[in-house]
Amino acid sequence: MKKMKTLVVALIAILFIAPSTIAQNSVLYKVEGDNIETSYVFGTVHMMAKKDFLLEEKVKSAFTESEFIVMELDMDDASMQTEMMKYAMISGDDSLQNHMTPEEYKILDEYFTAKLGVGMAAFNKMKPFVISSTAMIAHLGQDMASYESTFVQMATEQKKEIKGLETIAFQMSMFDEQPYEQQIDQVIEMLQKEGGIGGYFDKIIAAYKTQDIEVLYTSLNEFFEDDKAFKEKMLDERNQNWIPQIGELSKENSVFYAVGAGHLGGEEGVISLLKGAGYTVTPVE
User: For residue 7, what pLDDT is reported?
Assistant: First the structure.
């Protein structure tokens, strides 16, 4: 009988105490406050294999309940691709080859030739952030999925407006603040470290599947460990800029915010900053 009572107490603890702990591992949060309409913040991975892609019902429900969709960029802007290409190209007579060693050029040339069938010559006028994205795309292959693309499709079907927290010009300008040589070094390191680009990406996906925003934040910190100033610009400063925008955009309308999951965790992450601004932020189970 005593063992039975102990078991009942344990079950009650699991039912009523554990969920509050488990719920902290989440990439979807409800945001409430006196001066805003109830809104949601969802953390995404911009590119991933289809086999790892999952859109939970709670995310679909939050999306449907919201009146507006806000992402890092206005993803349904018809001019977005054209404008992005404008900022992706190296201007003048300069080329990316001028900013890397022959050994680095050879590594990238062999990687892209093996994965895509075209060498570095095809990317020599592209800025390093394009090389980084292309390396990731080459690793994932054609069987890719994107939360942002999925949300654009859902917004079109539900006739919902999409807005952006930032402009393409602003996002692209951030990469110009870091020397091209340093950006290329980061790509080479990602390709050559133990496990290669797959090992790094697998770690990100594993953390995302468990919805552990702190591990995701730590992984990004490790990636930027050689350039803390750039990390502050890429993560911390942008997070701080988004908080007043969230307050303004949600003042009269319920909004579904979708930003990179790496922005959620940490003391300077979106979740912590929203709480610091006086909002009630709770993980959605």
Answer: 38
